Amino acid sequence: MPPIPPKFDITRPDIERVVAAFYAVVREHPGLGPIFAAHVTDWDAHEVKVANFWANAILHEKSYDGNPMTAHQDAGNVKPGMFSIWLDLFDKILTLELRPDQAAAWSELAHRIGRSLRAGVVDRGTLPGGIPKLT
Fold first, then answer.
1. Beta bridge partners of residue 132, listed in sequence order
2. Is pLDDT above 80 for 21?
3. Integer Cα distance of 71 and 67 in angstroms
4. Among 56, 69, 85, 130, which one is least packed by beta carbons within 10 Å?
5. Cα–Cα distances in Å, from 60 out to 11, 26, 57, 114, 115?
6. Vertex 78 angle, CA 72 and 79, to 5°
7. Is residue 97 within 8 Å of residue 91, measured between CB atoms?
8. Who contacts 97 (Cβ-Cβ below 8 Å, separation ≥6)?
């Protein structure tokens, strides 16, 4: 059986470069930096894991072992509004690091995944009908 083609034209080194550039900005961000710092003790290992996630999602590699939904839910300090900040920063890095077609394709995928993660965080914190859990 032939390998599954990538979702769009990009290489593993491109993915690794984007991930490294993104987390360099995140570490300095006044809102996101402290959130990540509370959970990430080894940035190199974190970047490898995230690059593996994206390589799996885009290139269909089998290098990622994890569950992003559980990680975001279990963090305890990830709030729904943080996803738009994350995605805005990610889009800026994509635009700086990639060709326009690559940036657009990856952005579309990131926004779809971001909506799913945000829904998982929001749904976990709400009752049926969107009523916030207060306890």
1. 126
2. yes
3. 6
4. 130
5. 12, 26, 6, 19, 21
6. 125
7. no
8. 14, 17, 18, 21, 103
Asked, for residue 68, whether it belongs to a domain, the answer is: yes
| HEC readout, 7-30 | CCCCCHHHHHHHHHHHHHHHHHCC
Distance CA 51, CA 28 (A): 20
- Per residue in 40-73, pLDDT (tens digit) is 999 999 999 999 999 999 999 988 888 888 887 7
In a domain, 73, yes or no: yes
Question: What's the full length of the chain, in residues?
Answer: 135
- DSSP class of residue 129 equals G
> Cα(51)–Cα(54) distance, rounded to whole angstroms?
5
What CATH number does the domain containing 114 carry? 1.10.490.10
Instruction: Select from 112, 81, 85 the least CA-distant residue to 25.
Output: 85
Q: What is the CA radius of gyration of the chain?
A: 16
Domain membership flag for residue 133:
no
Print the domain residue range for 82: 12-121
Considering the domain boundaries, does residue 3 fall inside one?
A: no
Domain count, the chain: 1
CB 104 within 8 Å of CB 8? no
